Amino acid sequence: MSKPATIKDRVSVVIVCWNNRDLLQECLESVYAQTYPNCDIIVVDNGSTDDSVDYIKQHHPKVKLVETGENLGFAIGNNIGIKAAFKDPDCRYVMLLNTDATTDPDWIETMVAFAKKHPKLASVQSPTVDYYDHSVLDSCGILVDRQALATQMGYRQTNVRLETRQVFGVNAAAALFTRNFLDAQPFGEDYLDHDLWMYLEDVDIAARATMMGWENWFLNESRAYHMGSASSGKNPGFSLYMTYRNNALVLIKNLPRRIIIKTLPGMMRAELNRLRGFWREDKYSLIKMILKGRFKSLRLFPLFFRKRREFKKYWAISEADLWKLMEIPKLAKIPPKERPYGSETVTAIILSHNNMGRLESCLEAVTSQKYPNLKVIVVDNHSTDGSLQLLKEKYPDVAVLAQKANLGTANGFNVGITKAMLDEPDYFALIQANTVVEPGWIDTMVETIRKRTDAFAITSKLLAQAEPDQPEIVLNQGYDYQPGQDVTAIQFEGNRVKEVFAASDYASFHRTEGMGAIGILDGDFFDGLEDVDWCFRAHLANRKVYSQPQAKAHVALEPWLSESARWYHHQKNLFYIYIKDLSFKLFWKYLPAAIGFTARSYVTAFQKGFTVQQVKALLKCSARLPRMLRYRRHINSHRRARAVEVDKALQRNFTQE
What we know:
Elements: E1 10-17, H1 21-32, E2 39-45, H2 52-59, E3 64-67, H3 74-85, E4 91-97, E5 101-103, H4 107-116, E6 121-125, E7 128-130, E8 137-139, E9 142-144, E10 150-152, E11 165-167, E12 174-178, H5 179-184, H6 201-211, E13 215-218, E14 224-226, H7 238-254, H8 257-280, H9 284-312, H10 319-325, E15 346-352, H11 356-367, E16 374-380, H12 387-394, E17 399-402, H13 408-421, E18 427-432, E19 435-437, H14 441-450, E20 455-464, E21 474-476, E22 479-480, E23 488-489, E24 498-500, E25 507-511, H15 515-518, H16 530-540, E26 544-555, H17 563-581, H18 584-608, H19 611-637, H20 643-651
Helix pairs in contact: 6-7, 7-9, 16-17, 17-19, 18-19
């Protein structure tokens, strides 16, 4: 029977150091400040070539220093430290702590108290947050998902509800391991697999514990603070190489065959998508590191198959329970209304195509906004006028997504939206580079959308750019749309927030929540009415669109398409909206009006000399009809609003006060 934990149970803090002299003081002081009275510190120096060793000897004489003389890797370094700790029979827990991590003073005391209540506990960690921004999560435990991909739960997320729960594993940057488990695992003093050297060694020991029926926990108490990649970050591409070298090895060593087969298709798709993304971005060196890692892992397969045979006899968890543990939990967001104003995160996405003359004014207006949690992304749609050079020289801190071709308005914004969603902002703004928002624009938009929980989008009062002494010329305060008619721009008097059918993506503001049902912009639209189609889908999902006349933006109308090209896209996209977004009931109701509108469009096209463009639009729509019908089925599967409710929105006279 295992020895019960008491205050006499020693905790050894193992810190592996490699050329981290600049980080040691703060890391060690964090351990000195612990409220748990019975702990010691073991620093394993992995052949540092800076003055780390001399610094420890001179300034921290109580630290047990173990010098390896060479860089043996993170896994072996920790194994040496754990072995040194277990020379003391009273040592019942080992805390692994990276040199670039610190913890709250009650961290060890809290983890030990939790471990006492869980006799089958192998490891436990607290929320690990970004060292530089404590509102951003770094890790809430390790997940191995159903694509066999290891990820950090909660990575880079903000404002989420955290609950104490069992997890697949813990992040070794700051985690507590029990001696009971480490003594019970079957690989002796090779606690962290030395053949992995560095990266995913914590995933391996997590899988080992899970397969043996031990428990790994995330405890939502106390905090650890992690910088990230303090050592490996000094070698570009190294982390990518080691990750792809090790992940297949961890799988074949630890997981049942049926689980590997079930996860293999998803893992291959994810890897191909990543390689494709690097190829598109001309990051050939990263592709090389991935392939190098894969080929290296093939050479190690026989060794890890032997380890698998040795370990298999210790498996004590059913495949069903393991599969359930591999399900990714959804961390619920704390609603903005429950948070103090200013805590919401906003990403502004600026779309530019040969807007050299306007881009700087647009960026200055956005970056000078006073809102505290604002990020800016610029999507450059293959500009040839020097815009990219301007961004590199004047705005080095702005994220720039340079495209090899002009993707159009819809897909250009989609590139930015997809990138923004990686950080899961609460809201995002779409701004075209020929638009200048007024000071306080972000604050006004945040205040407006916070008060309207049913809002998907808030649109600006769009004004024509004019001289300071000239009166305002209102271009747009939203769009109205009725099937069988053209889309019309709305203008109204007063400063009251009003409901409109659609927002203009010259300058609009959107809520991230609910995007799964609405989706992103339709790339088939290319340019024109993509914002109307998007907002139509929001209405189908029971979300609304509002106009905020106090949020003003100035637009320089400089079309980048010819008038004939704009006519072609406009007619084509009206057809797409009609086919995709209307239910069958509304489709037949408005069909006579739609036929009449189409006939009038042909007459107008003939008068303007756009007959070829009109016919081209018809042919394009005919070719895209199967795709639009597939989109229609997908949209209807997410529809929440009944046809009568959508019809009321279509019939509402939004221009009335």
